[in-house]
Design goal:
Keywords: Signal. There is one protein chain. It contains 16 helices and 19 strands. The chain has helices at residues 2-17, 52-61, 110-120, 130-133, 139-143, 192-195, 241-249, 260-267, 299-308, 311-317, 348-357, 378-390, 402-411, 427-431, 451-462, 466-483, and strands spanning 30-35, 66-69, 74-77, 80-86, 91-96, 153-157, 160-164, 203-209, 213-218, 232-237, 255-257, 276-289, 323-325, 365-370, 394-399, 416-422, 486-498, 502-503, 521-522. Helix 9 runs antiparallel to helix 11 (348-357) and helix 15 (451-462) runs antiparallel to helix 16 (466-483). Residues 1-21 have low confidence and may be disordered.
Length: 529
């Protein structure tokens, strides 16, 4: 409820900021978005990549069973008109829409849903979306190679799918991201699909210039009447904050994610402060520790790292207040966030004591893998190193590209890494990343295993009473705080600059750059025709 209220309040803030929101949307024009998280897109096969960068274009090109509604702060049905729940809350019967056409002209059917989810569960591929599809009964058997079909998915007719879940959860939280996009079964397996993807979204694929941009154009048979408004979308890759800043000031792009330095600069610039849009996102920034590296196998060492770092100082000085201090894993906007929980104190003496008890009185050395990201990468690592050094822990930096880091994290090829990971919107799904049954490539990046934690999360998954479920999830989150598989850094405050002519921006707490682009439009003052 708290999450929903925050989303609605945030939505009101945006409505007040942009009095033009009441205008009649204009047809035509080009929307020029930026992909700000690296120097490339990972893949045009969105099933294969969990990077936020890739979902920016995928929100325009593809559609999932549900979609995120930022005004309501929850997922709502998108490719289905109705969900009839039975079987004690475990069986969902979806009546699919009959007006959803793929970009090659064929109507979507139940077969496409079943094919897409079965593909995602191919255990030889380790698709990141498997962490969501695994909630369907029989999906894990396909992943393990014990079955060819997901037993919990049944086609009733062309426009009706029955889905049996293993837990009493809202499937919307599992099937709204682009990782579970529905592909056309007749095209999705072809080699050509990766070069020229076909989706159900409001825009169809035109071109991909690697390292530069993706261009999409309006799909005239999109199922929402009168939408999309724009004729074209260009998503330009701009991993460098300075390049985005210049392009935005020169009116060459319509959106630009602001890092800490720009956040301060834009707030103090009379011409730019009106362009700022911000929201508390469901992302947790953290340093992950590999338990197969001996020192990190000891809980006391992991706790010592949390005590050794002056996290508040880093947030204030380096992140320029563009973040909220992390207590445990679940962020402020999570319905299971515990307001009473206090973060780890900055206490180097306590850190030294714990290291001594763990058998490391003189500390140890480790390799820390990082990207250049200014909000949670190299600058943060550089600030933390002298703090760890004070308690005897030496860190050697290993710098990699953002796309490489995503692979390092999924394969476990690290001693420690620093990252930003979705930790919502559903607390059950977020905490499931630490369940011992969740494979490392899916999202259990620290290969966390704790029987007590598993038991609490499993119990929450079978709870009928939402209050009881929230209580159990808070308990699981508290256990994570105690076990400290990560250094809990911060929860992101996402900030984006938006040109005054771009209308309809949604305050998406799951990732501000992920917009339901069919609702965006540009007025006649836009320089891009």
């Amino acid at each position: 409820m708290m999450f929903r209220m925050m989303a609605i309040v945030a939505g009101l803030g945006l409505a007040l900021a942009g009095s033009a929101e009441a205008q009649t949307p204009r047809k035509g024009g080009t929307i020029r978005m930026t992909a700000p998280y690296g120097s490339s897109f990972t893949s045009l096969d969105i099933h294969t990549t969990q990077r936020a960068q890739d979902e920016i274009y995928a929100k325009a090109l593809h559609r999932s069973l549900y979609i995120w509604n930022s005004a309501e702060g929850k997922p709502v049905l998108e490719l289905a008109k109705e969900d009839v729940v039975s079987g004690g809350g475990l069986v969902h019967t979806f009546k699919l829409r009959d007006d959803a056409y793929f970009h090659h002209g064929r109507k979507m059917t139940a077969d496409d849903i079943i094919w897409s989810y079965t593909r995602i569960m191919d255990g030889t591929k380790a698709y990141p979306g498997a962490r969501f599809v695994r909630v369907i009964e029989g999906a894990a058997a396909v992943e393990k190679g014990q079955a060819k079909e997901i037993s919990g998915l049944k086609k009733i007719d062309d426009l009706t799918v029955e889905m049996k879940l293993t837990e009493k959860v809202d499937p919307g939280f599992y099937f709204f991201t682009a990782l579970t996009s529905i592909y056309p079964a007749d095209e999705g397996a072809k080699e050509s699909f990766i070069q020229k993807p076909i989706g159900l979204g409001p825009f169809k694929f035109v071109e991909h210039v690697p390292g530069s941009r993706i261009v999409l154009e309006r799909w005239d048979r999109f199922y929402k009447p009168g939408k999309p408004y724009a004729d074209k979308i260009v998503v330009s890759i701009m991993g460098e904050a300075a390049a985005r800043d210049v392009a935005f000031r020169n009116k060459e792009v319509d959106t630009s994610v602001l890092g800490p330095a720009q956040y301060v600069a834009y707030q103090s610039d009379a011409n730019l402060k009106g362009t700022i849009v911000e929201v508390a996102e469901v992302f947790t920034r953290y340093m992950g520790m590999n338990p197969s590296f001996k020192p990190f196998a000891d809980k006391r060492v992991r706790q010592a790292i949390n005590y050794a770092i002056d996290t508040d100082l880093i947030i204030n000085k380096l992140v320029k207040g563009k973040a909220y201090r992390a207590t445990s894993w679940l962020p402020l906007t999570s319905p299971a966030y515990d307001k009473a929980m206090k973060p780890y104190a900055y206490d180097p003496a306590k850190a030294k004591q714990l290291l001594n008890e763990a058998g490391y009185p003189n500390g140890f050395e480790f390799e820390w893998t990082t990207s250049q990201n200014e909000s949670w990468g190299l600058p943060i690592v550089a600030a933390v190193i002298p703090m760890l050094d004070k308690v005897g822990i030496k860190a050697k930096v290993k710098q990699v590209e953002t796309a490489v880091l995503a692979e390092v994290v999924r394969t476990g090829d690290y001693q420690a890494f620093i990252y930003s990971q979705a930790s919502g919107p559903d607390p059950q799904a977020a905490l499931k990343c630490f369940h011992s049954s969740t494979p490392q490539p899916a999202c259990n990046y620290m290969i966390f295993k704790n029987a007590d934690f598993d038991k609490i999360v499993d119990e929450a998954g079978q709870a009928d009473d939402p209050a009881k479920r929230a209580q159990l999830l808070q308990k699981a989150n508290a256990l994570l705080y105690e076990e400290a598989p990560v250094w809990f850094f911060n929860y992101n405050k996402a900030v984006m600059a938006v040109q005054p002519w771009l209308k309809g921006i949604q305050l998406n707490a799951t990732e501000l750059t992920h917009q339901n682009v069919e609702d965006l439009w540009v007025d006649e003052t836009s320089p891009a025709k």
